[in-house]
Amino acid sequence: MPVPARKSSRMRSRKRRTHYKFKVVQYIKCPNCGAPMEPHRVCKNCGYYAGKPVVIVKTR
Ligand SMILES: [Zn+2]
User: Of 1, 7, 14, 36, which one's alpha carbon is 20 to 30 angstroms from that of 26?
Assistant: First the structure.
């Protein structure tokens, strides 16, 4: 909702922005190759997901 800039005080807008945060990226070990990977994602190292190869990873 648009509000004139002078109507919202510095404290009010700063308090609202306390919820703007960076998400810390979590890493787990790949059960297939042991490389660090993000959970619920396809492994970037071996292309496995849920114990099966899903993506063909170029190895060069
Ligand atoms: Zn892997």
Answer: 14
The Cα 3–Cα 18 span in angstroms is: 19
Ligand 1: distance of its center to the CA of 14 in Å? 42
CA of 60 to the centre of ligand 1 (A): 16
- CA–CA distance, 37 with 20 (Å, rounded to integer): 25
Average pLDDT (9-37) is 90
Measured in angstroms, how far is the CA atom of residue 57 from the centroid of ligand 1? 10
Q: How far is the CA of 46 from the centre of ligand 1 (A)?
A: 4
- Cα–Cα distance between 24 and 44 in angstroms, integer? 19
